[in-house]
Design brief:
six-stranded antiparallel beta barrel; Pnp Oxidase, Chain A; mainly beta; 3 domains; Thrombin, subunit H
Length: about 300
């Protein structure tokens, strides 16, 4: 990213933001497409800096945030340019047209060029998801540094030699590159221990491989103070509990929600410190799962 200061006068009020707004520490203040109600919201944040990535493509009303790759010509292999999925790679499916819009996970088996894509039949809580020929699905793949999404139709549900699906070969695939250190929206409960050994329950709002944004009901220190974060996480059906060292990068009050009965909260931006390779892998898997579900910041 190439973060540069933005004047309040340059920021559209009441309209979708054409870019994300960051503070000087690189934490997201407002997401792309988010609407800022009035300048008072910005004036309270000026001390922390208002910056945007000048290298990011601007948003216009005729272009989606996804880069479009139109239908693959004959005699060229699936997938389109930039997508390099491997056999066994995880695929996310969402069945369109149902009242419950849940996400299910499957694995790529292979494909027949220009005809069909084969994936395992997904499970939900250990039970096979009931799917029918002709149902339409949204398919997401996270490969390399890109997210890819397309709509398809279930051509055939097969049960032999194992349970799997034939999906219609896509006519259009959409791609969004990931940042080097992507952020994903979260709603996780964690335990925070401050430098004095006091514990408090916190809510993780956003998470990246390098740090997190958390909401907490009391002060746990100031900038550069250390803390410990204990975080139970679940990736698919795998579970673990991580204990991470972190440093406080910033703190500010959370704007109260008039419709909420929740107590006043503080927002802390924290950066992880001395994370083990194993813990880093768990964090990245969790983030990529959330991104694949559409929770990219």
């Amino acid at each position: 990213m190439n973060l540069q200061p933005v004047a309040i006068e340059e920021i559209p009020i009441g309209k979708p933001l054409p870019w994300q707004l960051y503070n000087r520490d690189g934490y997201t203040l407002f997401a792309r497409r988010e609407k800022i109600a009035d300048t008072k919201q910005l004036e309270a944040l000026v001390a922390d800096g208002l910056l945007r990535d000048v290298d990011a493509l601007p948003l216009d009303e005729t272009t989606d945030i996804w880069e479009e790759h139109e239908g693959t010509p004959l005699n060229t292999p699936f997938p389109p340019p930039g997508i390099k999925p491997q056999t066994g790679e995880r695929v996310q499916l969402r069945i369109l047209g149902r009242d419950i819009q849940a996400f299910y996970y499957a694995q790529l088996i292979g494909y027949i060029r220009n005809q069909t894509i084969l994936v395992t039949a997904p499970l939900d809580g250990g039970q096979r998801v009931i799917m029918a020929d002709g149902e339409r699905v949204e398919v997401r793949m996270l490969t390399g540094s890109n997210i890819h999404i397309f709509q398809s139709m279930i051509q055939r549900v097969c049960i032999s030699p194992s349970h799997y699906l034939h999906l219609e070969y896509p006519a259009k695939v959409r791609m969004q590159p990931l940042r080097k250190s992507p952020w994903a929206k979260m709603a996780l409960t964690a335990s925070v221990t401050d430098a004095q050994g006091s514990q408090e329950t916190a809510q993780i709002i956003n998470l990246s491989p390098d740090g997190a944004q958390i909401h907490i009901p009391r002060s746990i220190g100031g900038k550069n103070d250390p803390l410990h974060l204990t975080l139970p996480i679940s990736v698919d059906e795998l579970k673990t509990t991580l204990t991470l060292d972190a440093l406080i990068e910033h703190v500010r009050p959370v704007k109260p929600d008039q419709t909420s009965n929740e107590p006043d909260m503080l927002e802390y931006g924290i950066s992880f410190n001395n994370m083990s390779d194993e813990d880093a892998l768990w964090i990245k898997c969790l983030i990529y799962q959330r991104i694949a579900e559409g929770h990219l910041i």
